[in-house]
From TrEMBL:
Source organism (scientific name): Burkholderia multivorans
Residue ranges of every copy of the Pyridoxamine 5'-phosphate oxidase N-terminal domain listed in the record: 59-172
Source organism, top-level taxon: Bacteria
The protein, known as: Pyridoxamine 5'-phosphate oxidase
PANTHER family hit by this protein: FAD-BINDING, PUTATIVE (AFU_ORTHOLOGUE AFUA_6G07600)-RELATED
Stored InterPro entries: Pyridox_Oxase_N, Split_barrel_FMN-bd
Amino acid sequence: MSKLNTAAAQHGRPVFGIFTTRACVPAAIAWHAACVCIAHRPSPAAAPIRSMHAPAPLTDDAIAFIREQAFLIVATSDDAGNSDCSYRGRHPRADGTPTPLVTCVDARTLVLPDFAGNNLFNTIGNLLVNPAIALLFVDFVRQTTWLVQGRATIDEDAGRFAALWPDARRYVIVDVECAQPRTDATLPPLVLA
C-alpha cells in the first residue's frame, strides 16, 4: 500500500479527492478494476452491446440507486474499438450543494452533463463516431454496482437543462438498452470522505 493510502487509512483523509480507504487496497486498484470491467468490449462499432441479461429499462430501484451516487465511470470507444474511461462526479453549486450526477428522464433515458474539462474531448469525440456507451455506478459501502449500457446522442443546447447544471457545455443523452445490478461485487471497502 502506498504511503498516501497508508496515511489516509490511519488518519481518515481523502484518497484521490473522494475516498477514504479502510483496507490495504489502494484506491487506484479499484479505479483500474472498474475501468477494465467496462472498457474492453470487442469492436463496439461493429457489434451490438452484449449483455448477460435481456435488455431491460431502468427499474425504480436502479433509478433510486443512481440518484444517490456521487460519481460514475463512463466508458466509450472510437470506431476502431479503442476504449476510454472517464470519471464523472457531481459539481458544486454556488451555494455549495451538489448538482445531480445525472437525471433520469424516464426508464429508458438518462441525461449526463458535459462540463469543460481537459479539452481532449475523448468521451464526446468517441460518441460522435460510435454511440455505444457504458456507465458504471459504484457504491463501495453497499458493495453494489449498476452497469447501464446504451446508445448516446450529444445535445448541444446548453440551456436545455440549465436549471440542473448551469455550467454544462452540452449533454449526453443515453438511450438505455440494458441496466444490470451486481450486488455481490467484490469491491475494496472505501467510504466517501
